[in-house]
Design brief:
By secondary structure, the chain is of the alpha+beta class. It contains four helices and eight strands. The strands form two sheets. Strands 3-7-6-5-8-4 form a six-stranded mixed sheet.
C-alpha cells in the first residue's frame, strides 16, 4: 500500500512540474509576442523584400534562381525596393549585386534591353580584337581601366603613346578563352595565343569620340587602374595631335 501511495505522489509531482513548465513556456511566448507587437511602431510590420540569392554581375539578365523574397521591417525598407521576384526577373542588373543585398529598381534596368544599364549621359563603347586592342590583365565588370593609344610615326611625326582615358568603368567583358588560358596569357606563358575578346566601357559622348578617333589611326591598350576614380585634366578636343588626357 505504501508503494502505491509513493507512486501516486511521484506521478502527481511530475504532473505539477509539467504544468509549471507549460505555464512558463506560455508566459515566455506571450512575453516575446508582446515585445514583437511593441516593436511594430518602431520598425514597422514585416513586409516582403527581394534580395539576391547569388552574386549578380552588372549586365546580367536576372533569372528566377538569382533572387528570393525575405521578410523585412517596413520602416527600414530601402528606397525603390522590389517586393516581388516577378518585378526583377527578366531585367538587367545595372550594377553588381552581392548575395543577400536588396534588389531595388535602381539596381536593375527598366527593361531587358542592353540600353537599360547605360547610366544617363553616358555611352557604352565596345572595343574588340578587331581593333588591335591589347590588355594587361582581364578586368571584370565594375573595374576601372586606363586606355592608351599608340600612334605610328606618320601620325605625330614619331611613334607616340598617350593615355586617352583614365579610370573608365568596365561595363562587361567577353572572351573565348577559358580561365586557364587567361591566366597563362597574363603570365606570358609560351603557346597561349590570343583569342577574340571584347570589352565595353561606360564613357561620356566626348570620350567615345576620342576612342573612335584613336581606334581609326592607332593601336589601343587597356590597363587596370585603381578603383578610386582619377580623371586628371580637362576634356581635350578630339584631334590626332591632342588625344591624351
Amino acid at each position: 500500500m505504501a508503494t502505491l501511495v509513493l507512486n501516486r505522489s511521484g506521478k502527481s509531482l511530475w504532473s505539477l512540474l509539467a504544468v509549471a513548465a507549460a505555464v512558463a513556456t506560455g508566459l515566455s511566448v506571450y512575453s516575446y509576442l508582446s515585445w514583437l507587437r511593441a516593436q511594430i511602431p518602431i520598425s514597422g510590420k514585416l513586409v516582403p523584400m527581394v534580395v539576391a540569392a547569388a552574386d549578380i554581375d552588372s549586365g546580367v539578365v536576372v533569372s528566377s534562381a538569382m533572387v528570393e523574397v525575405v521578410d523585412h521591417p517596413s520602416r527600414y525598407l530601402p528606397a525603390h525596393a522590389l517586393q516581388s521576384t516577378k518585378l526583377a526577373i527578366g531585367r538587367v542588373a545595372a550594377v553588381p549585386i552581392l548575395k543577400g543585398e536588396p534588389v531595388t529598381g535602381r539596381k536593375v534596368g527598366r527593361t531587358s534591353g542592353a540600353s537599360s544599364v547605360v547610366p544617363p549621359g553616358m555611352r557604352a563603347y565596345s572595343l574588340g580584337a578587331e581593333s588591335g586592342v591589347t590588355i594587361a590583365m582581364i578586368p571584370k565588370p565594375g573595374d576601372r581601366v586606363d586606355v592608351m593609344a599608340t600612334f605610328p610615326a606618320e601620325v605625330l611625326g614619331e611613334p607616340t603613346t598617350v593615355t586617352i582615358l583614365r579610370s573608365a568603368k568596365v561595363a562587361s567583358v567577353t572572351t573565348g578563352r577559358n580561365d586557364r588560358n587567361q591566366v597563362a596569357s597574363q603570365l606570358d606563358v609560351p603557346g597561349t595565343a590570343q583569342s577574340k575578346w571584347g570589352i565595353t566601357l561606360f564613357v561620356s559622348p566626348e570620350e567615345s569620340e576620342r576612342l573612335a578617333m584613336a581606334e581609326s589611326i592607332g593601336r589601343i591598350a587597356v590597363v587596370l587602374a585603381p578603383n578610386a576614380v582619377d580623371k586628371e585634366g580637362p576634356p581635350l578636343p578630339v584631334t590626332p595631335r591632342n588625344l591624351g588626357t
